[in-house]
Known about the structure:
Blueprint: E1 3-7, H1 19-22, H2 26-31, E2 40-42, E3 63-65, H3 74-80, H4 82-92, E4 98-102, H5 107-118, H6 132-138, H7 141-149, H8 152-155, E5 161-164, H9 167-175, E6 182-187, E7 197-200, H10 205-209, H11 216-220, E8 235-239, E9 248-258, E10 261-273, E11 277-283, H12 290-309, E12 314-322, E13 328-334, H13 339-354, E14 359-368, H14 375-387, E15 393-401, E16 406-414, H15 417-434
Amino acid sequence: MSTNVAFANFGELFAGGSSAKSDKLGAWQKLAPSLEAGAILVAPVSPANLERREDVLLPQPARILIPRRLSASVCADILRDDDALDDLVTALTRDGEVEIAFQVYSRHLEKLLRTLEERGVRLGDSRPTLSARTVHLWNTKVGGQMLLAGIPDAASLRPPATPVHTVRELQTLLDGLDPGADVVVKLNASIGGAGTVVLRRGSDAQAELTTTASVEPQLKKSWFASREGNGSWPRLVELMVGSLEENQSITSDFVVAGEDRTTFVGLAEQLLAAGLAYRGCRYDRSLFAPEHVSRIAETGFAVGNVMSRRGYRGPFNLDFVVTPENKLFLVEINVRQSAPNDQLRLADRLRAAHGHELSFVCEEDVSLAEPFESTLALSDYLAPLLADSEPGRAYVLNIYGDERQRFACVMSVGETLDEAEGVQRSVRRHLAVAA
Length: 435
């Protein structure tokens, strides 16, 4: 018999997260769909924020263990909280071997797992054995490129790419481009495409890179950029394939469950602002060509199995683009649980409950002009407005932001993609009325 424990530790990608930003239901929601009966969830969520939820959407785990200090670093908080650590050890030593789940393999999680083993907890094959610093490297653009370059199935789909370490290096590369060629310049450490720019032959590198200044504060807090100064350098320069306006962006999720055992979770089409910055996703089987799905799965299995032999266990995702010429390219790896993964698991739960196929659209940047303080308050506001106008339904997954600007992540569901998109349009329309 085994006990399942899940660590809601996505915040450990960053350093210095505030208590207010961490104390929200989103940490629960990101892992709850995959929890099994009897699971323990370790999350930075205050009891006051455990609102009423629909059973079909978010099942209650057997127990939620909450450290007294609520910050973005839940594993570090457990290590600092003797009572919470004792509670966790007691819970995990009752039923034999323990299976773990997590959102990112961070240095704090690595230390916590080592401490649990020292206290007699028997961790199963779901525990990574490689250093968290290796995952740290793979989660950078340059480190991810190095990993994929050594895997033939992945390398054959990669556009040409090279790292640069200074503005002068970048300018030299731009001046040597073929006429008409564009390149995508990616910050070594960013999430959701922040700071990515498209440049071409003759571009002024210094002038163009000033447009990324707004993301510098985020990068300085980035855990996986901490050994790269402020996170700005190096940058990865990748040959642009297809066109930003017409490319289809596909994200695919996998889980490494053991050596040479990689599971294909699913895929979704990404919604990108200006073709670069992540804003959400949508899912419908008709969106994806079967031959691309097969190649994506084969590539993910190859990548996951190589990582497994290095000692990795846990989630990762691969981002692809399909050009207007129907060519498939692999553009990025992220060794962590993705936002589309979260929504896909929720949609799968809804599909199973309703007994038929459902499609969904999930957008991360629905602006909130009204001060909705909880997902429940926003759900209650939207429900009667949507009831008579749309055949589908909206689920509010999270509210985030600060006092100046707040956003919601809303998943709109329908029996067809058209229905789901109709609900999403209504959500935006009603929130605009609220403003």
